[in-house]
# Entry
Amino acid sequence: MSLFEDDRYTWRETYFVYFFEKSRPSKTQMEKFLKELGSRYRVHDVRTDDDGRFESATVLAPDDFSGMDITYVTGDEVREQLDEMLEEIGKATLNVGQVDKLKKIAQCDARFDVYHFEQVGFDDDFEGDEMLDPGALLIVLERLAKLCDGVGFDPQTGTLM
# Structure
């Protein structure tokens, strides 16, 4: 079940990891990746296509009051979004490392959408303020990019990761 359907979580933002479709992880590679995240994370609903390639999963990080839905996307949707993003980023001042990442992204034909959720709906006697810790998300993004030799992107800030 997607976290979009879970009343205990509210969507906060969406991040992307761009990569080449030929680097798309198999179910086995993705399961290994998800297990390597460690005991802080709980993985649910890993789904694959008919050929055993990763399609989607839900990852929870209860200690960080965070959850993520990760979905695989390819085709025209990726190209259209990339064209818009490249136009926006092209107007910014980039350092050498960012220019290399931008060149790589421009050639990508697949991506992971990482929908980031905050756990909400605590008891009335809970005295916490802002609880969401982005650490879990950043770890997943970094490792996911490494797994598929991709580049992470934060569309809210225009940051290449």
About this structure: The mean pLDDT is 87.
